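Backbone geometry:

***
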Amino acid sequence: MTKIAVIGLPQSGKSALASALQNLADKDAHDLQFTEVHNPDELHGHSYDIVLQVVDSTRLEESLLLTPHIIDEHEKIVLAIGRYDLLLETDHSLNLPKLQQLIGVPACRVSVHKNYGLSNCLHVLQEVASRPLSKAHPIYHLRDQGDEDTYRAYVHGVLTQTLTHAKDDQNQTRLEKIDKVLTNPWLGFPIMMAALYLVFWCTFTLGAYPQGWIEQGVGAAAEWLSGLMPHTWWSGLLIDGVLQGVGAVLAFLPNIIILFFFISLMEDSGYMAREAFIMDTIMHRVGLHGRSFVPMLMGFGCNVPAIMAARDIQNPKDRVLTMLMVPFMSCSARLPVYMLFVDTFFADHKALVMISLYAIGICLSVLFAVLMKKTPWFRQDDDDSVNELPEFRLPKVRVTAVHIWERVADYLQKICTVILWASIIIWALEYFPSQDLNDLENSYLASIGKAVSPILEPLGFDWKMSVCLLTGLPAKEAIVSTLAILYDGDIATAGFTPLTAFSFLLFVLLYFPCIATIATLRREAGKVWAWFTVFHSLALAWLVSFLVYQLGSLLVS
């Protein structure tokens, strides 16, 4: 058994190459065993027959500088020039025979994802394993000198003789050239805003058709059941409670799929990390942690895993502050509420209003963090930043599909559990004690709403809207089902104005997302900060909605 250690720089693809070579060796019955190694120190004390160094073809000089450190631990090595197809995309070329001659180490070209050069790499490894080691090469003489600067100069000279540059003399692939534009300090932010606008425009425009079909289907099912079943309390529960409540939330499933399709593309391509890179400088100017924006971006999907992602921030103060900022992000649970109101009251400016809600959440989270940084709990100097970016790559269909399905499955699970039970409870509170849906003012639901409404009346909310906000505590999607039950599925005739609707949306944006988020915050940051989030988010939501409604009323009048 020939034992081969596979080593290389981070993001050089050594894991994928080791796995691909092992599969090919097993298939062809070669007696080879490949083991991934992360740094040269791991070679010490292990009986590897050969070390296969994966050299990143787009970072040749940096990769080759690792070679003498590998030789310190093991002298029988082979170079695998990885991602060679990307080097060709730059219109560069590499004289491999001359490189082998000057470095004095056998080499081969490989590209895992295009299945290029793997068989030849196995052949080179078998040849090296069967022959004695030769030390009559320049690399070994340089190693004996122990001079890092000498070796660096030698590698630079070798690449000068073996690497032929393209006309623009830049070692960049097409994707890397695109990446350079996307992270440009002047162009990056406008491109990011344009991309977000396009995402929301497509979400509304493309999702409107299947959304309408689902709404028509729910209406047809309700009409069919009404004609089929006698008018009793349990038929009312099934039709007006379960079907209308659950159907109202289910109608937004196509929009959820479209939105998370685009979000998944941005995540899988690495563009989401570039958004964090673009925002990094801005965040540092207001005294925030450079890596805080990554959990904040994750918060657009779900606040719970976003809070947990903040564990990666080493400084405890920055970690807790980032967790407190996450609830300001508009999670997917708020999305059906946004879509319902935006589609009804802001039909001519859907994408713009949606972006404004997301932007308001981000701006208020930054302002919140700036204020908290001035308190004794979080005051500190911080110069950490986002320096490393993952490779910019084309998304894979399977990975994107898995990400979308995870979101859809979570959405459907909420519909079948929280939304279903919320719809049943809301209908029951609306039906009893009078047992007459036309006598809503004397229902238990009205009693609850009227008890809370004095606090929310200055925001332009009636008791029905107050009840909707209460049902949103376990899950924000429940607001949509409650609205469907209280207003018979048509909020356009419920007396809302665009100003009232926007004030309501701001309250939904700013008060804490759900009980699960608070429970996660309690576990990760502590009970004090969890309760702090509950109270400050309610106070902030009330204040912002109050100012918008009252000032807006003055302007309208």
User: Anything to note?
Assistant: The radius of gyration is 30 Å. The chain has 25 helices and seven strands. The first helix runs from residue 14 to 27.
